Amino acid sequence: RFFLEDRDGCQFVKEAKTKPVFTMLHLGAFPAIIQGGTTAITGEIFDVNEDVLKDLDRLEGHPSFYRRTAITLEDNEVVETYILQQREKYEDAKVIKSGNWIRGEKKDGK
Questions:
Q1: Are 82 and 66 contacting, i.e. CB atoms less than 8 angstroms apart?
Q2: Rounded distance, CA 98 to CA 108, Å?
Q3: CA dist., res. 22 & res. 20, Å (int)
Q4: pTM
Q5: What SS3 state is found at 16?
Q6: CA 36 to CA 32: how far, in whole Å?
Q7: In whole angstroms, what is the distance from residue 33 CA to residue 86 CA?
């Protein structure tokens, strides 16, 4: 969110939650989402233009570190998010059981 605040070409749409089919990992300064699991991930939806999307792809290391992937929210809306690709490197990462990086970071990830 901090990357998107006060930026031309993007607009906050809503807070949202995924279906419970993911796992959120604590990778230190940032989270990662992997496919598989039983956690619903809480996040924010932004509408972004192509320039902002290209900048986000670079920031997130798309497609090698994270891959931008279509997912389904709990309300059945389909959106895109970034899914960790190198999950085997992070097998020992702490799991954020709440699925909420902002609220769960300190509690679950310590």
A1: yes
A2: 7
A3: 6
A4: 0.88
A5: strand
A6: 13
A7: 11
Position of tokens 């279509």?
70
Sequence letter at residue 49: N
Query: CA separation (Å) from 54 to 51, 57, 63, 93?
Result: 5, 5, 12, 28
pLDDT tens, N- to C-terminus, the chain (110 residues) = 667 877 899 999 999 999 999 999 999 999 999 999 999 999 999 999 999 999 999 999 999 999 999 999 999 999 999 999 988 899 999 999 999 998 876 555 44
Q: Which two tokens stand for residue 32?
A: 């990662």
Q: Are 18 and 3 in contact (CB under 8 A)?
A: no
* Cβ–Cβ under 8 Å, residues 35 and 21: yes
For tokens 């769960």, name the residue. Answer: 104
